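Form 7-S
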Amino acid sequence: MGYQVSGSEYDSQRIQERIQKTDLVPSLECIRKETGYILTKLKLKGIDNLEKCTQALNNKKKIKELSIDLSIDENILVLFRREIEGWKIKIRSIDELNWIDSEIIKRIVAYGIKNAEDAFNLLNKEKERKRISKDISIDEHILKEIFSVSELMRIRWLSPNISRLLYELKYTVVKIQKANSELLCNEIFEYNKVKKYYNGKIGERDIKRIIFESQYVNI
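Output:
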């Protein structure tokens, strides 16, 4: 199981289903009714999964050429690309877990765990965490936290601070998938009032989006 969803295994039907179900931001709402047409046209060129779509649309020149070739509005293709590119999770640096002592971070990075993907791959088993804990003299509980926060950041929209908060509330990807948006929203709000991990407020609509996006994480 990789940190990212495999684009080559993400076929056109799944792309269309996801876009149809997504609560799109207003600027992207126009692609919803066009997705089926876009994907049908792209299939004519052998572009039939997420990996091929992102490669075929990865610069302005390619978008313009496909727009002309397939008679698809260029602006719609740009917006379509923006949405599907957003499905690729940003790999966060371990340095962004800035609540962890900097000396500990240095030792972890020196060991070869430089980002969240490394942490997910190398710290996902208790046996390995125990071994690494001894090798670099770091409390195993810190390694478990780093792994758990990194795992939560596989969900689109989740920053290190929000992932930290959810970890402390004992949430996992599986638990978020099953969460009630209203209850989770209130729980996050009340906890952050005390901890002050971030400014502002995450609304229930945002929480619904997070719960929705969690369904697309490989577990």
